[in-house]
Specification:
heterodimer, A: mainly beta, about 60% strand, B: mainly beta
Chain lengths: ~120, ~110
């Protein structure tokens, strides 16, 4: 699992409230990613990070912000949660192999429900 | 927008049969095509991957067939087993330092005993 943990694993919140999801990795990987998974859409990239304080948007970044103040932690924030943000959120890291091939490894996911 | 189209959405195969999942892509700049397997309640995990300079890659019962001219690739699971029941995602990545991956919509595979 490349040493990736996500917290919380489950959360129920109300529309309009702020929510922060945490991704923690223990292996000093440079690249980290946040995806959301919804039926019929596969996994869609929200934001990614290529180093401390270096982040960029993915394809579905509206309504989300991220921060990375330490190598090991990548935070995803929903400033004002909406029902359309009900989803399963996955964090991932990229790890390079000896064949100069990189593979993304995913965390266990956080199931977020916005009522 | 870059897309990877995956079919079928769901698939039921008898134990011992061959499971086939198909994907098509649009962007010729994609240079890496992984397949991910996901069990309920878990994150996706890399199953097998291929680069466009080869037409086929086999790892055990899993084979990727790649047709560069048609911009299509497929996953074949030989001698399908109940333990193969999972959701499968094809994906594609363009060359960049950020390694951003575009995923297909997924195929829910069920293997009947």
């Amino acid at each position: 699992d490349a040493g990736i943990t996500q917290s919380p694993r489950h959360k129920v919140t109300e529309t309009g409230t702020p929510v922060t999801l945490r991704c923690h990795q223990t292996e000093n990987h440079r690249y980290m990613y946040w995806y959301r998974q919804d039926p019929g859409h596969g996994l869609r990239l929200i934001h990614y990070s290529y180093g401390v304080k270096d982040t960029d948007k993915g394809e579905v970044s509206d309504g989300y912000s991220v921060s990375r103040s330490k190598t090991e932690d990548f935070l995803l924030t929903l400033e004002s949660a909406t029902s359309s943000q009900t989803s399963v959120y996955f964090c991932a890291i990229s790890q390079w192999t000896s064949g100069n091939e990189d593979t993304q490894y995913f965390g266990p996911g956080t199931r977020l429900t916005v009522l | 927008q870059q897309q990877v189209k995956q079919s079928p959405q769901s698939l039921i195969v008898q134990k011992g049969g061959i499971s086939i999942i198909n994907c098509a892509y649009e962007n010729t700049a994609f240079d890496y095509f992984p397949w991910y397997q996901q069990f309920p309640g878990k994150g996706p995990a890399l199953l097998i991957a291929i680069r466009p300079d080869v037409s086929e890659k086999k790892e055990g019962r899993f084979t990727i067939s790649f047709n560069k001219s048609a911009k299509q690739f497929s996953l074949h699971i030989m001698d399908s087993q109940p333990g193969d029941s999972a959701t499968y995602f094809c994906a594609a990545r363009g060359y960049s330092s950020a390694s951003k991956i575009i995923f297909g919509s997924g195929t829910r595979l069920s293997i009947r005993p």
